[in-house]
């Protein structure tokens, strides 16, 4: 979680939710009105590429993997992996919670799209998958 939150924040995104092994992060165009949406899409792509690299290069995760108790529970060549998927689209943001904690929640068909794209990363065996909407939001140079 530390790797994901830190890198997403560095690239002007906002970690929203952690559901077990998955994170939902958003880049809101209203947070950066002077920056075109293409820049936000490219920041998201760059952030996710850095997350994949940081997870693979993490000394803390490597030490955890080599811990004897961990090796007893899983095979000795176990390593943490991360899959990232990106989709660009609209959503209605609302607040859910109580007097003690409030979280942002998103309502949109685009939330369902990203769920399907997440499943596709496992189906295709890839760690990085972008929808056409995200690719179209990037500049030609980034593509």
Task: Compose a concise summary of this entry.
The protein is of the alpha+beta class and 143 residues long. The chain has helices spanning 2-10, 37-57, 59-65, 68-73, 109-124, 132-137, and strands spanning 14-19, 22-26, 84-86, 92-97, 102-107, 128-130.
Could you describe the 3D structure shown?
The protein is of the alpha+beta class. It has one domain. The chain is built from six helices and six strands. It has a two-stranded antiparallel sheet with strand order 1-2. Helix 1 (2-10) runs antiparallel to helix 2 (37-57). InterPro entries: Nucleotide_cyclase (IPR029787).
Topology:
Elements: H1 2-10, E1 14-19, E2 22-26, H2 37-57, H3 59-65, H4 68-73, E3 84-86, E4 92-97, E5 102-107, H5 109-124, E6 128-130, H6 132-137
Helix pairs in contact: 1-2
Average pLDDT works out at 84
Order of adjacent strands in the largest pleated sheet: 1-2
Structure summary, number of beta strands: 6
Task: Tell me the number of structural domains.
Answer: 1
The SS-based structural class is: alpha+beta
Please report which band the strand proportion falls in: under 5%, 5-15%, 15-25%, 25-35%, 35-45% or over 45%.
15-25%
Order of helices and strands: HEEHHHEEEHEH
Helix content: 40-55%
Continuous helix count: 6
Defining key terms:
143 residues; alpha+beta; 6 strands; 20% strand; globular; Nucleotide_cyclase
